[in-house]
């Protein structure tokens, strides 16, 4: 029986040695930092070792059982917490490792070899570009400028350049413009004839310079899309030598296009003055490597800002549109001797149209329709101002042209507002079935004549409201008959497009009015709405659409 008890200690001794080996491995792993080992793991193994040693010296299972229980009791909760709440620190380290791997692939995609010290320095600088730009994401006003200044100075330091510049391409105008400039940069282009040859004047001129994409070194390199090291400018016909001052004499240059998916978005330019050592091939290679990642940093920063600005504009537009809806009449007022109907469809984020029907008295019922140029809160401000002034003045005996002139003067003198609007105003006298009207801008007034079964525009295009405060608008008067139909609309209606890019046009609107002149104003607007939706198909509406129909009874 004693022999059997002795054999029972063999697994216990084996467990002891396994635990010692495991403990040794954990210490080695922790020293090399190849993985992070929690002190909980060490504590569990130490408790287990202590229990085994005590049992070997003092035979008995009680202490061993308690040590195993304690080790498990400590270790199991640790595992549960680790699974449920992963370490944020490890995630950060993994992110940093991923960034380094991304940088390495961006700069040296042709190799999977370990980086030497020089390349590791470039890798650290490249990571610095990303970190620096990330810290400035919240700086909407100066963030991009600061990022480019930091990159420009870094490139100058790495290459020991006397001057550096970053230029960006304007896709709409086919020009490349200087956005960041430091140091002494002998101009490799023809200076303006009227520019004094003084260092401060030349530097200031270059700081705000723009160049076409041809007939100069900046544009030619950008179009070619390939980096260039120029050590003998006198042999390069793309370099222009200004004279005679020494500070204008060309030295050596590095030009590196900023490319994103084979699209050139700008250019890095570095210069050394004549008399200094020309740029070496190693400096050129380092500049190209850094420029690749600097381009990504600048592009990503610009993209993030565009997304933020778009979201803010969209949010502002949503708020403006909700306020716009509050301004629009929910129920048509009763108009004597006339049948009135409105079709109004608002586009997301535009906030450009509003209409108003004001019944002051029997001899003054005002119909107004307005299309404010612009979007968001600015256009809403113009809309509110025009609506307020209109409702204040129409209750007087002033004619339509005077009302429009006063509104224009009020909008034009508001220096904080840089938007204008088109507006059509009709004052209807139900006792005589006559109208006086005026228009500002391109918003028209059309009249269907029941007598001739013809439809014609009765208004003329004029200066928009808000452009010039001295504008005087013209008044027109007309006698109407029963069955005549007044039609007012904004350009978003007739300029809406179908799937082929064809506009709805005034012709379709005229056709519906003429064919359905005997129907009510509500029926006519409903038919236009249905026809317009059928015409547009699946094309998204890009502008507010408003139609006001007044049928004389």
Can you describe this structure?
With 553 residues, the chain is an alpha+beta fold. The chain has 14 helices and 16 strands. The strands form 3 sheets. Strands 3-2-1-6-5-4 form a 6-stranded antiparallel β-sheet, sandwiched between helices. A 5-stranded antiparallel β-sheet has the order 7-16-15-12-13. Strands 8-9-10-11-14 form a 5-stranded antiparallel β-sheet. A hairpin with a 4-residue loop joins strand 1 (163-170) and strand 2. Helix 9 packs parallel to helix 10 (376-393). The longest helix has 47 residues, at 281-327. The radius of gyration is 39 Å and the shape is flat.
Topology, element by element:
Elements: H1 2-32, H2 39-57, H3 62-84, H4 88-107, H5 117-135, H6 143-159, E1 163-170, E2 175-183, H7 199-207, E3 210-212, H8 217-224, E4 228-230, E5 252-260, E6 263-272, H9 281-327, E7 338-345, E8 353-361, E9 364-372, H10 376-393, H11 400-412, E10 421-429, E11 434-440, E12 445-449, E13 454-457, E14 476-479, E15 485-489, H12 491-494, H13 505-515, H14 521-536, E16 545-552
Antiparallel strand pairs: 1-2, 1-6, 2-3, 4-5, 5-6, 7-16, 8-9, 9-10, 10-11, 11-14, 12-13, 12-15, 15-16
Helix pairs in contact: 1-2, 2-3, 4-5, 5-6, 5-9, 6-9, 9-10, 10-11
Strand content: 15-25%
- Total helices: the number is 14
Radius of gyration: 39 Å
Mean pLDDT: 80
Walk across the major sheet and give the strand order. 3-2-1-6-5-4
The level of helicity is 40-55%
Overall spatial form: flat
Order of helices and strands: HHHHHHEEHEHEEEHEEEHHEEEEEEHHHE
The parts where pLDDT drops under 50 for at least 5 residues are 87-96, 102-115
Which structural class best describes the helix and strand composition?
alpha+beta
Total number of β-strand segments? 16
Largest sheet: 6 strands, antiparallel
Ends distance: 122 Å
